[in-house]
Amino acid sequence: MYKHLQRRTFEVIEKGDSSDWLSRVVDAFLATLIVANITGMCLATMQQVHSTLNTIILDIDKIALYVFTAEYLLRLWSCTTEPPYERAILGRLRFARTPMLLIDMAAILPFWISAGIAAGLIPAFISADTQHALLLLRILRIIKIARYFESVRTLGNVISSKHEELSIAALAEVILLIVSSSLLYFVEHDLQPEKFSSIPAAMWWGMSTLTTVGYGDIIPISPFGKFLAMAISLIGITMFAVPMGILGSGFVEEMERKRAGHAPCPSCQENIPRHR
After folding, report:
1. Minimal CA–CA distance to 144: which of 187, 108, 103, 188?
2. In this predicted structure, what is the pLDDT of residue 187?
3. Which among 81, 87, 89, 68 has a CA at the least distance from the CA of 9?
4. What is the CA radius of gyration of the chain?
5. CA-based nearest residue to 101, from 63, 147, 135, 66
6. CA–CA separation, 2 vs 56, rounded Å?
7. Which has the closest alpha carbon to 107: 140, 66, 74, 59?
8. Is the pLDDT of residue 215 over 80?
9. How far apart are CA 147 and CA 15, in angstroms?
10. What's the CATH architecture for 2-148?
């Protein structure tokens, strides 16, 4: 009976079987609570809303905290029914180190630390300002919604399968940012020492130029600086289009996998049959 209850709990809150009505109800409830909690957090920053709906927002936040804490504990309790986590202590520690469980813990732990310090149960090892800053970690709750939406899981699979290519593209963009910022620093520093005061300061210009945002607060004024800026802008358009192409091809491959009934292996990214 005990093992059956554990297994059933894990099936409902972790596996999310679409053919299981209880699992669908739980998923819908948790997804709705996440959306309501994040929406309330955003609305609370609006003064006109905060003054009228603050009590409701705080109540939703408390309910979300209790529910997400119970969800986290239930996941840890029931995970031992799965072969990789069968051992009572080591299995749960291994499960707790999975990415989504770490996000779950980060989203609830600061609240309980602050509550423990306020109640005198935990020594005040961090300042009040640090406690307040840690509460911002609740924004991580929005990542939890990936469990309940296939589109978000698809995006995660695409990024996971293309992480090497995306890493190479990101490295190339960082190199381009450093080189372009360094060039503009040496060309413009003598003419605009207050704006191009250092290479890191020039990186603000480099980032806004490479991403084609163009804030305009820092611009080159020398002829050679303007020429470099034009060339760097053209290169930036090309370089920042590369990750989009990589993600595009990843989405095509992921759709083909789904149509074929396969999924990428977490370790080698080879196609393997999906579990039904």
Report:
1. 103
2. 92
3. 81
4. 25
5. 147
6. 38
7. 140
8. no
9. 9
10. Up-down Bundle (1.20)
Q: Number of C-alpha atoms within 13 angstroms, CB side, residue 239?
A: 22
Are 11 and 23 a contacting pair, CB within 8 Å?
yes
DSSP per residue over 147-208, as a string? GT-HHHHHHHHHHHHTHHHHHHHHHHHHHHHHHHHHHHHHHHTTT-TTTS-SHHHHHHHHHH
Residue 209's nearest CA partner among 179, 246, 167 is 179
Which CATH architecture is the domain 163-273 placed in? Orthogonal Bundle (1.10)
Q: CB under 8 Å to 63, separation ≥6 — which residues?
A: 33
**Crossing angle for the helix pair 199-210 and 163-188, to the nearest 10 degrees:** 120
CA 161-243-158 angle, to 5 degrees, is 25
d(CA 202, CA 183): 9
Break the chain into its structural domains and give their ranges: 2-148, 163-273
Model pTM above 0.90: no
Query: Which pair of tokens denotes residue 229?
Result: 């800026």
Q: What is the pLDDT of residue 270?
A: 58
Q: What is the mean pLDDT of residues 179-199?
A: 91
